[in-house]
Predict the structure.
Amino acid sequence: MLAGLAAILKRDLRLALRQSADNGMAVGFFVLTVILFPLGVGPEPSVLARIAPGILWVTALLASMLSLERLFAADYEDGSLDLMALAPLPLPLLVLTKCLAPLPLPLLVLTKCLAHWLLTGLPMVVLAPLLGVLLNLDPAGYGVLVLAMALGTPALALVGAIGAALTLGARRGGVLLSLLVLPLYIPVLIFGVAAVDAAIYGTGARPHLLLLGGALLAALALCPLASAAALRQALE
Amino acid sequence: MTASRLGHLTMSQRRSGSSLHRFANPSRFLRLSRRLTPWFAVLAAAFIGAGLYIGLFVAPPDYQQGESVRIMYVHVPAAWMALFVYTCVAASSVVSLVWRHPLADLIAKASAPVGAGFTAVALVSGSLWGQPMWGTWWVWDARLTSVLILFFLYLGHIALMNAFDDPTRGARAAAILAVVGFINIPIIKFSVDWWHTLHQPASVFRLGGPTIDVSMLVPLFLMALGFTFYYLLLLMLRVRSEIVARKIRTAQLLQAAP
């Protein structure tokens, strides 16, 4: 089973890297939108430093939503999602479980989310401190910013997968996706910004990071199940 | 049009023999709702009328807030209804996902816009109350923010329900969303306890009894009852019109392809 999932992960990454424009766009959107803020609110360093954590998080939220629409759509349209959902377990596990069960959909969702995060979330985690420099972010905030982003962006991908699965085959799926997913993103945004702010003002980022970690664990456990239910009704 | 030509509504009605499934039968539901609707209308009008009269003219003004406390008699019941209706949507979504009752989908679809309306009333009346009391139309405290999220969840539910060409697909997708979004309901309820917010903590449903005087509780509960019957009235009317709309749709499809 793990081999099958690894094959799907490898395939997703290879497909994405061969058409790198798609993922580059989400990351490019992240950088460009952050750059818009100093031009919009003015280059005053103290103002920028005050709002830098918020800008970085809001922009990361929007950027990670941008490529969500394609998370299952391509596989849904060309039918490979049906095949993946129906693919039997590899032989050793088959012997072990003694029944012909298809690949569990929640694990497929998890693999898809991992590929999505590696392609859009991880670059944003790496780029966030660099953009923080542009925004005159307080030096005390960088470590926590990276840590909070590393905890928060996978949760965003997992929650977003529910929206992506629900809107498969819908009219105007992209706009609908943002309406569904953004309200569910708000907890990550609140705790993510609170962690960086707490690090800057020295009030202790630990509780906020723990809450972010808790949100990630809850998302890891629950979101694949919800997305799998949504995928199942889309494939029916 | 004969009863056997009503598409999937009738298919499940055939299977529904047990007592649990009795009211999932659309034609039985139609009969029942036709009988209940006038009662709901009368009760809603009576309770809301009495609640408004007592709330606006009989109940005393607050010793701190003065006359503006009377906004409470609309604001608090509307907020209760916003949570209650979402709970109804989520519960019927679970029923729809587990047992595939066609009526559960109809109830969820009919309830969501009503709940969104109650949420909007709660938000607007709260804003009007906040201006004289807190000196601001809006603050980003936990209660207000989580209710605003509830409003967007309702909108997302309505949009998702209508986003598919096949109404069954929309209903199933919206049901999953409603169950996922239910996580927000306890957050709204306990937001005033978990975070120290500008919004006051619970003063009616709390351990140790309500902290509001009886003279104010009476109109509050009258309004809450009135709003509940108003919701039931709208639910009956909306489910009925939805059933009729589906019958028309099935009839048209049958005419197109005999």
